[in-house]
Design a protein that fits this description.
Oligomer: single chain
Number of helices: 7
Shape: elongated
CATH class of the largest domain: Alpha Beta
Structural class: alpha+beta
Largest sheet: 4 strands, antiparallel
CATH architecture of the largest domain: Alpha-Beta Barrel
Strand content: 15-25%
Number of domains: 2
Order of helices and strands: HEHEEEEEEEHHHHHEE
Strand order of the largest sheet: 1-6-7-5
Length: 288
């Protein structure tokens, strides 16, 4: 599943590529991935120009001049790929992991008046593109419950620690993955930041000291900032807004490195199961 750095990479790419473009046509395969009425599409999407691309946690928002926004969740396998300077239906990005678009995984297509297009692809069909009034977005259930942005300039180590106070009997990895605690942290960056802080992912929150929380806070921010810089962590489905892969996995210290030496102490990295997820640790650096 794309995590915060991957979604932020897509946001930055789209901000560069689609702001100012005017939507001429919309097509989709099923209402599940595009749960919007035809009348709303005609009135608020077609003919509207894109004025901003925002992100909250793992959710993207494409703001329109009509006062509506496209709320997009990539879920497990979603992609947003822009194709420029091409005839509709016959192009693909240069140096891309994505084949000619649209393809069998394309769920929604926005064609712009200049002939370029934005494709929402989703192999597993869990993602969606929802059209709604921009002013109503802060009031939806997800936005009310999601935790603070870990990369926000105003987010502090003290606030980070306070977010965990009600989860003293929860293991730290499960708490990190809880989107109501901190927004956008998924499996990859939980493992990477816990390794950086030398904290075993099975430790209960209540056993972690203030100093360890401070270290974890800085490790999490450092790992996520590096991931954004490197364009995210590509698997077989994640690509950026131009269909290209990210390179963070070339810099990963522990995730998917089981059987290899720990880059800090040389001990063999192990893979466990914690919080229902495959979890990578150094058994020496991260002792229980």
């Amino acid at each position: 599943m794309p995590e915060l750095p991957e979604v932020e990479t897509v946001r930055r790419g789209l901000s560069r590529l689609i702001i100012g473009k005017v939507v001429e046509r919309e097509t989709h395969d099923t209402p599940k991935g595009f749960p919007n009425s035809t009348s709303d599409v005609v009135e608020f999407l077609l003919g509207a120009s894109i004025i901003d691309v925002r992100r909250r946690a793992k959710v993207l928002m494409i703001d329109l001049s009509s006062g509506y926004s496209l709320l997009i969740h990539l879920k497990m396998t979603g992609q947003l790929v822009f194709v420029g300077e091409t005839r509709f239906g016959a192009g693909h990005p240069n140096d891309s992991l994505v084949n000619e678009l649209p393809d069998k995984s394309t769920r929604v297509t926005l064609t712009f008046t200049d002939g370029t297009a934005l494709f929402f692809n989703d192999q597993r069909k869990f993602g969606w593109v929802r059209l709604m009034p921009t002013i109503e977005i802060p009031n939806i259930d997800f936005m009310q419950k999601v935790g603070p942005e870990p990369l926000s300039d105003s987010f502090t180590a003290k606030e980070f620690m306070q977010r965990f106070t009600r989860r003293a009997k929860t293991n730290i990895k499960a708490a990190l993955l809880d989107q109501s605690v901190v927004a956008g942290v998924g499996n990859i960056y939980a493992d990477e930041s816990l390794w950086g802080a030398k904290i075993h992912p099975s430790r209960l929150v209540g056993t972690i000291t203030e100093q360890e929380f401070t270290t974890l806070f800085h490790e999490l921010r450092e790992v996520m900032n590096l991931a954004v810089e490197k364009g995210g962590s590509s698997n077989h489905t994640y690509v950026n807004a131009e269909g290209k892969k990210g390179s963070y996995m070339d810099f990963a210290r522990v995730f998917r490195r089981e059987g290899l030496p720990c880059p800090r102490c040389g001990t063999t990295i192990e893979k466990l199961r914690v919080a229902g997820r495959g979890t990578h640790i150094c058994p020496f650096c991260q002792q229980l």
